[in-house]
């Protein structure tokens, strides 16, 4: 019992350290925040690391305690920008994902959109036609159990907020999309749902 209790205390400590790193240092990636927090705590046993859900709960609590008004205003601003981008990209069936959707966006958060099209080049052509500057990369995701490598375009709006566009096929709308085979499906919301979130803030 004592060992189990100690393990839970360690997990909780790491979760809160990781939450602080995400809120204050702008780390968006749970795995990165978890590893950095574990190093700060001098922990090497990966079995005692908290889950992403535990970190998300700790992050929500941290923001409520230390940054409630600032966080709410920042989140509202990011969701407004997300709605503008989704309206602009409506032909690609945009869905909002990530911390701006979940409400855990830190002060340096970017906006993550999934776009769905049969022609992935169409997104790049759209950006080129409108003279929108962007960076290209690739992401590894899982559609159900199937691994996929998909294009990612990152743009910056006028205030330096990054908008990351992950381009998927329409068939991925019918499958849970995950970042790892054993992970949870990435939550996503279409434009109407994001507008509703904004109205309820």
Quick summary of this structure?
The chain has 201 residues and is of the alpha+beta class. It has seven helices and seven strands.
List the helices and strands and how they pair.
Layout: H1 2-25, H2 30-40, H3 52-66, H4 68-88, E1 95-97, H5 98-102, E2 111-116, H6 121-129, E3 135-143, E4 146-156, E5 162-168, E6 177-178, E7 189-190, H7 191-199
Parallel strand pairs: 2-5
Antiparallel strand pairs: 1-2, 1-7, 3-4, 3-6, 4-5
Helix pairs in contact: 1-2, 1-3, 4-7
The helix/strand order is: HHHHEHEHEEEEEH
Strand content: 15-25%
Broad structural category: alpha+beta
Distance between the termini: 43 Å
**What is the average of the pLDDT values?**
87
What percent of the residues sit in helical stretches (DSSP H or I)? 40-55%
Widest sheet: strand order? Answer: 6-3-4-5-2-1-7
Overview of this structure, please?
By secondary structure, the chain is of the alpha+beta class. The protein has 2 domains: 65 residues; 131 residues, 2-Layer Sandwich (Beta Polymerase, domain 2). Helices cover 47% and strands 20% of the residues. The chain has a 7-stranded mixed beta sheet with strand order 6-3-4-5-2-1-7. Strand 3 and strand 4 form a beta hairpin. It is globular, with a radius of gyration of 18 Å. The termini are far apart. The mean pLDDT is 87.
Descriptive terms for the model:
alpha+beta; seven-stranded mixed β-sheet; 7 strands; Beta Polymerase, domain 2; 2 domains
């Amino acid at each position: 019992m004592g060992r189990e209790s100690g393990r839970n205390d360690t997990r909780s400590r790491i979760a809160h350290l990781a939450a602080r790193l995400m809120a204050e240092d702008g780390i968006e990636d749970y795995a990165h925040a978890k590893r950095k927090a574990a190093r700060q705590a001098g922990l090497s046993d990966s079995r005692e690391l908290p889950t992403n859900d535990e970190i998300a709960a700790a992050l929500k609590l941290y923001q409520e305690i230390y940054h409630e008004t600032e966080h709410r205003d920042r989140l509202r601003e990011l969701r407004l920008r997300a709605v503008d981008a989704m309206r602009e990209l409506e032909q690609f069936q945009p869905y909002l994902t990530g911390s701006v959707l979940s409400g855990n966006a830190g002060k340096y958060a970017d906006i993550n959109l999934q776009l769905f099209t049969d022609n992935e080049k169409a997104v790049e052509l759209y950006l080129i036609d409108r003279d929108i500057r962007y960076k290209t990369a690739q992401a590894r995701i899982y559609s159900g159990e199937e691994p996929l490598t998909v294009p990612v375009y990152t743009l910056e709006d006028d205030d330096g907020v990054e908008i990351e566009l992950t381009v998927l096929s329409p068939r991925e709308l019918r499958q849970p999309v995950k970042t790892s085979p054993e992970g949870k499906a990435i939550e996503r919301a279409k434009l109407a749902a994001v507008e509703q979130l904004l109205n309820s803030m």
